């Protein structure tokens, strides 16, 4: 341990004064170092710590001797209510006996024992007082009290401290003076303790303290130093020890407490948050009231009229023994007490299912069953038909239907359509792998024998071969695509949708249709997300509906299973039969094939009819083609959209300026012109654009198609993003670039001539036209090749008076429209009023009549319903928390029911319910 | 057009003037359960004597035409009738079988000498059986609503002597607690003579304090240091305050929308705040040409009425910037206090020239019994007015109000001043660095700071 110093309480901190005895014994300047905060905190929190330090006689392993004035000060501090320092000091002295002696010899200054003994006694007195004070933990006591405690254990102390005596009386009057000074300095720090200082000074007169060499001087005192001994003392509780250990571990100091204003601010903030949250609960009710079509104040008014009996009875209680008996009986039997209509069981059953629902459900089930049996019978009948032609027609019809369905599916549910497609693809693969249509079967061999003589047989074989060829060719091409195109097999462009596997830059790789059978990984699919989600929604809906219809479904499933079993049995029988007859004839062969096909569902889908297959194939190839085309179109349109997106905004802006049909014509022209000039439009004019350029751009909307097309549009490659002006390059350079960009942007169009044209057109439109009212053959001969006479013509050609000169006649660069009629505009609404977003909306509202002449009575009543109705003579109370509760409950109900309900008339609702109940 | 014209023709808002005070009316209080009762406190300008009168006034006609078909017990349950019963030997003629009741008694029922000096505030207890008053004599007094018998002296039920002068008073909506303001904002329990809570934040004096009628534990007060302070009765600290460019005189909470309140400011404007977002007001209502002294919400929470030093009262829709109505009379002086009746039909204003005036809330509304056809016609006309309100000619008629000369000229002057200010600002903006003079909306201009 370092230098044991004095602990001093100053402004709420503990300070330890280490004394540099060895280096500056003469001055004994006190160095103050601050104990880290946690110690202080800890000492304060744990009063028992102080107690334990004092009471248990904790040992402190100091080798240093403590000077007398240190003791004094320690004593003083302990008096203030810290832990018992006197005790510590005492222990120190005991442990440092040996060194003291040697020191004394070295210094060689000894004083008479009598003198020292008196000093010692005083010293001891102080110590004991301190100790006692420490244990009692009194904060402050008068010196008189201290003196009362003097007698305690004096002898013991005397014996103990015998050897200290010679060490203490070292030093002369000089040291005393200095010590006095020091004490004064210290006490000055503490303030207001002057009186007691004087008291103490006489005690230290003869005690010198500067004969100590300071080992480990300059070290700070640590908590660990102080509490080391605690571990050894059994009297200290385990809890305290663990606390101290914890303290040891955490090195950092605790932050100083916040200032009062800061804490207050935090408190205020917290409180404000809380109350604003509370207030926010009203938000929904406020919103609802604002939106309500009609509010009747006072809000929570009870509807007039007779109340339901239950409510009236509700407050009544059974008092007489008879009544109580009756009520007990009722409650035991779960009979309704308040609501005399329904028992809880009845209510439950009602809740479970109403009669009508049940009826509907039963009817549905019946219908399902009937349909089931009907279809089963039909299927059986069909299967028993042996006509080949019939089946052919059937298959054809089926296929057609399938194709139709597939088309629909393409639009509605592309995912499942893709699955279907893949199924087909798989069927084709299987077909290729099998030896079907290879002319290698028994039937084919027999045919081969017959082929020489039988034309029909030859034809049949050829047909089969063709089918085979078609299939293999087709599949080979797809295969070659899959494997790579180095096979060199030429593929028919019609048959092969070659775009399937190509990664075209323009095409969307995400589209499942474009990729065909390659993959249907939905993760990659970005584009068809909408139909997918739609499908997902459908599925989820199905899932939701699932539990409701379990019974039905179960029934249906049972039927289906039974039917399947039956089918299988039949098919097996048939197969067996066919196998027997297989050798015999074509028909039988076909039948057998069919039977086999019936075993394999996928095969059945593909079927065996060649033309139909071809048809199907061509259908699908067409489909692919269509898809491709549509894809391309879509892309093109997307591109156009991309290009014309800023255009659209401009057009919308331009809409405000439309004032006549001619303007509309102009607009049309623009629309035509637009695709021709994306190049010129693409680069956005850069930010530093001048005003003139801006004007130009605005004007440019009136571009004439012919005009634009006559000029040769210079094709410019411009980066998509507007070129930014680099600051480092200098402003001049930037401006030049800017100008270039602008020039580029408007390279294709001649703005001025456009404007002039526009103006001319306006003028033309404004000029009065000659009205020709001549009727050929009226008043003279008419017919082919005859013209009305000049006289007539002159007479009936009406020239209207020339209009007043145009306002913009003298202004070269302005077009002033003269279409505005001031006499009408006086009565027109100047700007679109607030709640309306579109002029059309406003016009519609204005057009809709309100009065009874044009509407039915009910409609008028509804239209003219005032928004707020107050009742005369009724006090409207402010909204209360009950309203909020009601509102939230209602909202919850709505949330569960999933349908909005009306705010008004809870009474009526209740009565309706009752009505229903009684009906049931 | 016709409907609008008719409305203007029939707009006769002034109903009655209630006199009886011998000095300017300083405060008023609505009765919490009776529509026909109004309390008003005045200040007597005469030197030394300081006689103060508090009047009970049966204020205006009560029409029972709405209830003509309802059974008898229903009518009896009506709270206003109860009180009429209490007050009235005069009501002995009451007969439930009479279908139309037209009682117009504008007379003072009771006069109490309550305080020495101004009566600063008055409030009726939520149950309506007693009321509180505060005055310049540093006392809070509780009075019985029922007048004492003949020959018995008027004495308060309870008197609390405070340390400082109280300037504002409000009662809790449901509990027996009330709040006063002066040097601090104090929350009192009715049973105790010392405040149960006392809020202060900085050194200021408060001019008014109001309980939130919906979220009943919240309060707001206007302080003389131009701030509006929010409190929660349950907390030991105030919640937040907003400092404005000028002082607010009073404020009023919206009784239907818990988080909105409107304050009447010295800068001729009213500001509606959302208490959660004090950074800028929701709406600035500007039409007055002098300091606004009082504001009160209609019980439906859709409109409020404001009283101004410019001798007029105005009615604002809560979301509009401009007023929809202005009331004034030749003899009405500075209006100090204003109240909107609890049935949303009438407005009461108390002014400096010792009178309380009774106005219709809707100027053109017909009072009294309306036949079914009349009702339908009124609704239809209302709808028509709404529909065609945007048309310039209709708008011109609907907006036209006759104003006293001083208001008219001052309003003109203010527009000129505003324009000048705007122009100057734009000029400054033009000649300073871009962004140095920010564009501030009208709403942002008046808030100096929000102190958390």
TrEMBL record, chain A:
The family database entries (Pfam families) matched by this protein are listed as: Utp14
Where found? Nucleus, Nucleolus
UniProt main location, coarse: nucleus
Q: Which InterPro entries match?
A: SSU_processome_Utp14
Residue ranges annotated as compositionally biased, kind Acidic residues, are: 480-492, 540-553, 603-616
Note down the stretches annotated as region Disordered. Answer: 97-136, 478-618, 671-701, 781-811, 875-920
**Which spans does this entry mark as compositional bias, Basic residues?**
118-130, 789-798, 901-920
Q: Where is the composition biased (Low complexity)?
A: 675-689
Task: Give any single GO term for biological process.
Answer: rRNA processing
Where is there biased composition of kind Basic and acidic residues? 559-602, 880-893
One GO cellular component term: small-subunit processome
Record keywords:
Nucleus, Phosphoprotein
| Homology family | Belongs to the UTP14 family.
The identity of this protein, by name, is UTP14C small subunit processome component
UniProtKB/TrEMBL annotation, chain B:
WD repeats by residue range: 285-316, 328-369
Q: Name one Pfam family in it.
A: Sof1
Alphabetical list of PROSITE patterns matching this protein: WD_REPEATS_2
User: Does the keyword Nucleus feature in the UniProt annotation?
Assistant: yes
Q: Does the keyword Cytoplasm apply?
A: no
Which family is this sequence assigned to? Belongs to the WD repeat DCAF13/WDSOF1 family.
The protein's name is: Ddb1 and cul4 associated factor 13
Q: Which organism is the protein's source? A: Gadus morhua
**Its gene?**
DCAF13
């Amino acid at each position: 341990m370092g230098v044991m110093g004095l602990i001093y309480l100053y402004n709420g901190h503990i300070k330890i004064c280490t004394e540099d005895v060895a280096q500056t014994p003469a001055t004994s300047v006190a160095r103050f170092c601050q104990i880290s905060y946690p110690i202080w905190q800890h000492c304060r929190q744990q009063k028992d710590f102080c107690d334990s330090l004092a009471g248990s006689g904790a040992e402190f392993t100091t080798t240093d001797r403590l000077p007398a004035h240190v003791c004094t000060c320690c004593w003083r501090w302990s008096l203030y209510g810290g832990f018992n320092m006197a005790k510590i000091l005492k222990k120190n002295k005991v442990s440092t006996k040996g060194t003291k002696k040697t020191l004394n010899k070295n210094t060689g200054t000894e004083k008479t024992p009598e003198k020292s003994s008196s000093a010692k006694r005083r010293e001891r007195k102080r110590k004991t007082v301190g100790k006692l004070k420490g244990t009692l933990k009194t904060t402050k006591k008068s010196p008189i009290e201290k003196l009362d405690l003097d007698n305690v254990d004096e002898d013991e102390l005397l014996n103990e401290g015998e050897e200290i005596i010679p060490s203490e009386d070292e030093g002369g009057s000089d040291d005393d003076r200095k010590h006095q000074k020091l004490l004064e300095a210290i006490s000055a720090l503490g303030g207001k303790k002057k009186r007691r200082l004087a008291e103490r000074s006489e005690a230290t007169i003869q005690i010198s303290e500067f004969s100590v060499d300071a080992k480990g001087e300059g070290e700070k005192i640590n908590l660990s130093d102080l509490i080391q001994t605690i571990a050894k003392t059994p009297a200290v509780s385990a809890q305290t020890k663990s606390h101290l250990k914890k303290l040891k571990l955490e090195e950092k100091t605790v932050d100083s407490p916040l200032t009062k204003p800061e804490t207050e601010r935090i408190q205020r903030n917290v409180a404000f948050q809380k109350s604003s949250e509370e207030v926010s609960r009203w938000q929904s009710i406020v919103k609802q009231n604002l939106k309500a079509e009609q509010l009747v104040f006072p809000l929570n008014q009870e509807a007039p009229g007779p109340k339901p009996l239950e409510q009236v009875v509700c407050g009544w209680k059974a008092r007489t023994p008879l009544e109580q008996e009756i009520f007990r009986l009722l409650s035991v039997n779960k009979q309704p007490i308040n609501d005399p209509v329904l028992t809880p069981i009845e209510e439950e059953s009602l809740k479970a299912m109403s009669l009508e629902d049940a009826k509907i459900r039963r009817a549905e089930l019946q219908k399902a069953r009937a349909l089931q049996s009907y279809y089963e019978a039909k299927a059986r009948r069909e299967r028993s038909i042996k006509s080949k032609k019939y089946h052919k027609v059937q298959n054809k019809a089926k296929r057609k239907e399938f194709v139709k369905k597939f088309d629909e599916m393409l639009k509605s549910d592309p995912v499942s359509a893709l699955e279907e497609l893949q199924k087909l693809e798989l069927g084709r693969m299987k077909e290729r792998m099998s030896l079907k249509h290879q002319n290698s079967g028994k039937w084919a061999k027999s045919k081969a024998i017959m082929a020489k003589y039988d034309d029909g047989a030859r034809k049949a074989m050829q047909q089969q071969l063709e089918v085979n060829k078609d299939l293999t060719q087709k599949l080979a091409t797809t295969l070659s695509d899959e494997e790579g195109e180095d096979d060199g097999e030429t593929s028919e462009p019609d048959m092969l949708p070659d775009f399937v596997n190509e990664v075209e830059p323009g095409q969307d790789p995400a589209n499942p249709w474009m990729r065909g059978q390659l993959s249907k990984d939905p993760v990659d699919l970005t584009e068809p997300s909408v139909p997918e989600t739609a499908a997902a929604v459908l599925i989820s809906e199905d899932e939701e509906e699932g539990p409701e219809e379990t019974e039905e479904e179960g029934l249906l499933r049972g039927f289906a299973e039974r039917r399947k079993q039956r089918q299988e049995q039949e098919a097996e029988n048939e197969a067996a039969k066919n196998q027997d007859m297989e050798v015999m004839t074509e028909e039988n062969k076909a039948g057998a094939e069919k039977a086999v096909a019936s075993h394999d569902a996928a095969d059945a889908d593909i079927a065996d009819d060649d033309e139909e297959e071809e048809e199907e194939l061509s259908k699908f190839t067409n489909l692919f083609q269509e898809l491709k085309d549509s894809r391309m179109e879509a892309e093109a349109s997307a591109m156009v959209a991309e290009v014309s997106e800023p255009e659209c905004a401009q057009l919308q802006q331009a809409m405000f300026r439309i004032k006549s049909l001619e303007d509309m014509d102009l607009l049309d022209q623009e629309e035509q012109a637009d695709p021709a000039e994306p190049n010129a439009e693409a680069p956005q004019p850069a930010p530093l654009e001048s005003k003139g350029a801006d004007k130009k751009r605005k004007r440019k909307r009136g571009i004439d198609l012919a005009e634009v097309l006559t000029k040769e549009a210079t094709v410019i490659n411009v980066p998509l993003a507007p070129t930014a002006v680099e600051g480092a390059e200098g402003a001049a350079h930037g401006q030049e670039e800017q100008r270039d960009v602008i020039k580029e942007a408007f390279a294709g169009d001649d703005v001025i001539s456009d404007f002039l044209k526009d103006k001319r057109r306006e003028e033309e439109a404004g000029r009065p036209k000659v009205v020709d009212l001549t009727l050929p053959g009226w008043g003279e001969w008419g017919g082919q090749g005859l013209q009305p006479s000049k006289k007539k013509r002159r007479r009936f050609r009406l020239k209207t008076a020339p209009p007043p000169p145009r306002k913009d006649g003298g202004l070269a660069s302005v077009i002033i429209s003269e279409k505005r009629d001031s006499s009408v505009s006086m009565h027109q609404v100047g700007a679109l009023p607030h709640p309306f977003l579109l002029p059309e909306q406003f016009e519609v509202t204005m057009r809709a009549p309100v009065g009874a002449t044009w509407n039915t009575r009910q409609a008028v009543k509804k239209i003219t319903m005032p928004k707020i109705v107050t009742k005369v003579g009724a006090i409207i109370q402010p909204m209360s928390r009950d309203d909020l509760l009601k509102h939230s409950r209602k909202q919850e109900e709505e949330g569960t029911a999933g349908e909005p309900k009306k705010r008004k008339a809870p009474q009526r609702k209740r009565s309706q319910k009752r009505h229903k109940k009684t009906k049931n | 057009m016709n409907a609008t014209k008719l409305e203007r023709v029939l707009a006769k808002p002034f109903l009655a003037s209630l006199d009886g005070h011998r000095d300017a009316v300083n405060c008023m209080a609505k009765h919490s359960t009776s529509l026909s009762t109004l309390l008003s406190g005045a200040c007597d300008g005469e030197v030394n004597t300081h006689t103060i009168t508090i009047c009970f006034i049966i204020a205006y006609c009560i029409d029972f035409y709405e209830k003509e078909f309802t059974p008898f017990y229903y009518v009896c349950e009506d709270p206003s009738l109860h009180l009429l019963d209490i007050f009235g030997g005069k009501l002995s003629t009451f007969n439930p079988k009479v279908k139309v009741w037209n009682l117009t008694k504008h007379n003072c029922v009771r006069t109490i000498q309550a305080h020495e000096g101004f009566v600063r505030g008055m409030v009726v207890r939520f149950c309506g059986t007693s009321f509180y008053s505060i005055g310049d004599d540093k006392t809070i007094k509780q009075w019985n609503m029922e007048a004492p018998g003949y020959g018995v002296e008027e004495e308060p039920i309870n008197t609390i002597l405070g340390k400082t002068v109280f300037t504002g008073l409000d009662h809790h909506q449901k509990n027996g607690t009330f709040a006063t303001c002066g040097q601090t904002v104090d929350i009192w329990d009715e049973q105790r003579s010392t405040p149960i809570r006392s809020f202060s934040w900085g050194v200021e004096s408060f001019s008014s304090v109001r309980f939130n009628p919906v979220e009943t534990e919240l309060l707001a007060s206007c302080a003389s240091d131009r701030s509006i302070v929010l409190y929660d009765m349950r907390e030991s600290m105030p919640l937040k305050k907003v400092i404005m460019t000028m002082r607010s005189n009073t404020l009023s909470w919206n009784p239907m929308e818990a988080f909105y309140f409107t304050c009447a400011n010295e800068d001729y404007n009213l500001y509606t705040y959302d208490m959660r977002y004090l950074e800028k007001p929701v709406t600035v209502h500007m039409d007055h040409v002098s300091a606004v002294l009082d504001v009160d919400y209609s019980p439906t929470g859709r409109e409020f009425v404001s009283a101004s030093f410019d001798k007029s009262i105005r009615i604002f829709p809560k979301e509009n910037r401009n007023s929809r109505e202005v009331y004034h009379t030749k003899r009405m002086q500075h209006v100090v206090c204003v109240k909107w009746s609890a049935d949303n039909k009438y407005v009461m204003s108390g002014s400096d020239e010792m009178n309380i005036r009774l106005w219709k809330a809707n100027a053109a509304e017909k009072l009294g019994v309306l036949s079914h056809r009349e009702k339908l016609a009124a609704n239809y006309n209302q709808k028509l007015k709404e529909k065609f309100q945007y048309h310039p000619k209709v708008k011109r008629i609907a907006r036209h109000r006759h104003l006293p000369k001083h208001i008219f000229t001052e309003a003109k002057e203010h527009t000129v001043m505003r324009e000048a200010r705007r122009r100057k600002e734009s000029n400054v903006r033009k000649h300073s660095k871009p962004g140095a003079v920010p564009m501030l909306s009208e709403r942002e201009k008046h808030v100096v700071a929000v102190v958390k």
